[in-house]
Amino acid sequence: MKILILTFYYHPDLCAGSFRSKAFINALQPLLQSDDSIDIITTMPNRYKSFRREAAPFEEDGQIRIIRVQLPHHQSGFLDQSRAFSRYMLHVLNYTRRGEYDVVFATSSRLFTAFLGAIIARRKHAPLYLDIRDIFTDTMKSLLPAPLSWVILPLFLLIERFTLSSADRVNLVSEGFRDYFLTVAPQKIFSYFTNGIDEEFVNFSFHKKTITPKKIITYAGNIGQGQGLEKIIPAIAKLTENENEFWIIGDGGMRPSLEDALKNNEVTNVILYNPVHREELLQFYKQSDYLFLHLNDCPAFEKVLPSKIFEYAATSKPIIAGVSGFSGKFIQKHIDNSVVFAPCDHEDFIRKYRSLSNKNVNRKEFVEEYTSTNIMRRMAQDFIEFTKQCLS
């Protein structure tokens, strides 16, 4: 059996999509037969312009071949990302033109990796397994300005319907996606293998040994439109400047806006760090008193379940989350010593923050249930069983 796997991000890139793809491959490898092979087509590490890791354009490890596409230099803007994906798409189509595949697997936060998987699966008359990590069209509806959205969104909807109708199996990382995708593909039956907690976080002690003059509140991740940090961090940092220090670790298209907002509001208790290796990130978490999460105030984000939730929960640290909808309910139901406040609402942040204990808590049961190894093992088994059914 020959398997094609499409993932825009892959190890050693630094993002949730990369970590998830690598965990899936690790779980899939032991299930392969001796005559099975996998082609993984991805990109050279490119998630953040301020954090680059070296990787070979081609790697071969037993039954697995990794092909990495070199992308043009790009920022986080819509047009830049479109150009980058176009390069990836052309390389994938060219590479797969002559090869034969028995099954196609595509994991996609951006719609077009899934769309690319659908095109190739149809060309090769191969079954398609989709792993959907975001609702791209719904997000664009919230973020694109009106004139542009009127032109582009109908096209996105057509692509989305084509992609979902081409898939033989669809996994959604959030059950909050279900109602939306049922309107796109009413006949589909979805699975829900969520994001999870990677081993590095399970086996690390996050106990803070030193007492700092101010409590440290840490955010780690992307700084983009979806996070809306520029709308909340300057205000809450200013309001708590005598008691808290904020560490913001990451990069993204809205980082300059955040920097400007901090400067304009004369905020002095926020430190911005570039993205770091996960080993170093563990140390940042260890020195923190609270962990902070925020999503912009958009209807699309009421359906998501950010991977950062699982990572934060594994640290035992108190969590302050500016989220709504499905992720807010998930946190309140499953994660002890956490509070949820209304996105972009600094007054609600203050109220909820004041009610939160600064003590670490044991979340052993949550960690055991949502360990990435276990989730990906179940997903890999599901993929193998699906493939056998399709090929029998």
Characterise this structure:
By secondary structure, the chain is α/β, with parallel strands linked by helices. It is built from 15 helices and 14 strands. It has helices spanning 16-28, 78-96, 111-124, 136-143, 146-166, 178-184, 199-202, 233-239, 255-264, 278-286, 308-313, 325-334, 346-354, 364-369, 372-391; strands spanning 2-7, 37-43, 58-61, 64-69, 103-108, 128-132, 169-172, 190-191, 215-220, 244-249, 270-273, 290-294, 319-322, 338-341. The strands form two sheets. An eight-stranded mixed beta sheet has the order 3-4-2-1-5-6-7-8, sandwiched between helices. Strand 12 (290-294), helix 11 (308-313) and strand 13 (319-322) form a beta-alpha-beta unit. Helix 3 packs parallel to helix 5. The mean pLDDT is 93.
Short description:
By secondary structure, this protein is an alpha/beta fold. The protein has helices at 16-28, 78-96, 111-124, 136-143, 146-166, 178-184, 199-202, 233-239, 255-264, 278-286, 308-313, 325-334, 346-354, 364-369, 372-391; strands at residues 2-7, 37-43, 58-61, 64-69, 103-108, 128-132, 169-172, 190-191, 215-220, 244-249, 270-273, 290-294, 319-322, 338-341.
